[in-house]
Amino acid sequence: MNRIILYNLILTGLLASLFSGVGLAQNTVNKIVAVVDKGVILQSQLDEQLAQMYQRIPTEQRNSINKEDIKKRVLERMIITELQLQISRRSGIAIPDSEIEESIQRIAQSNNLTKPEFLSILKKDNVSFESFKRSIRDQMIIRRVQASYVYHEVKISDQEVQSFLKLLEQSGENQATEYHLGHILISTAEGASHEQIDSAKKSAQNILDKLNQGQKFSTLSINFSDANNALEGGDLGWLKLAQMPALLTPYVEKMSAGQVSKIIQSPSGFHIIKLFESRGQEKIMVTKTHVRHILLKINALVTDQIAQERLLNLKHRLDNGEDFTTLARANSEDRGSAITGGDLNWVEPGALVPAFEAAMNNLAINEISIPVQTQFGWHLIQVLERQQQDNTQVMLEAQARSQLQKRKADAAIDAWISKLRDEAYVEYRLN
Description:
Elements: H1 3-10, E1 32-36, E2 39-42, H2 43-55, H3 67-91, H4 97-110, H5 115-124, H6 129-149, H7 158-170, E3 178-187, H8 194-212, H9 217-224, E4 235-239, H10 249-252, E5 264-266, E6 269-279, E7 285-296, H11 304-319, H12 324-331, H13 335-338, E8 343-347, H14 354-361, E9 372-374, E10 377-390, H15 392-423, E11 426-428
């Protein structure tokens, strides 16, 4: 796998991690480059962050990067990270090693790599496993800090979900269509002079020319963009039309994959967007099952063996023509369903415990199972009907809720981080 692609996947969001206690290179002068409230950021930590930053940039593009500008941006990210880690230390938030290892294993698997292969790539790119592990830990801690201080306050109502879906429909676009966008912003200050606006527009035009000449969008974003996600290459991820700023949607609707927009002016500055790709969502079908059962529970008097024998006897009676409803009412210890003859009605995938569902899925219509054990006891199961159901709307509503939650949470986190930064004591000691 191309290592640049891999790093785009695994290092996005990790750039601001503070590598406390990192072993120092022999020739590194380990001075303090910033004092952040009660903590410090060291030169060695900044150097390592910058090294990881450059790993994400294609070799042929690295000479075009303004190193001093990038250094300041990376340091600012590290300051924000350190402030949040200080909150975690005061709050006693910690991540067990087992969770860190699981996360790293998932990263490797998502890139079709074994853990040894993944570690080999880290080593080739001069990233130590311990420092990578610390960056993972820091990001997990930060997510928990943000969840504790911000996410729990973000609520989405059913009305908001329905309004959001209605807006998608009114856009005239397939509401399942998503767009993978990149964004570069050359900002202009409020009350900027005509000369300042003209200068910003010329900078945007210069970037657009470079894009049309084939230069990397991510590199130009890192080097020039004033957007919050500049150091992530300007990647906005996957968005639906209703999630985008209204300023961008008329352009996105007309763009094809790989296309770059013209310069778009707004009160905040000049924008350039790129449509990397788009995708639709196929209809989501699920199998619903109409099922009933007889449950016998285990207790001091009824062992597993006794329960199985009783159910086998009931199954024999059912196979010989006795009525399931009658036997369920007389014998089932699931009192909620016993009064309806053991009927659990229609159930969707995931609604029942795995052992029950697995046995149910293996039954033909009207077939009665052998005794099946779950954490609730022993069951006889009979499938009465199956039908396919279009679950697309349910999934769309779930996705809409998730997207609205993320939008609100992102805005809340930005405001919280801005307040955190404004109230912090920060002393820069860069040369």
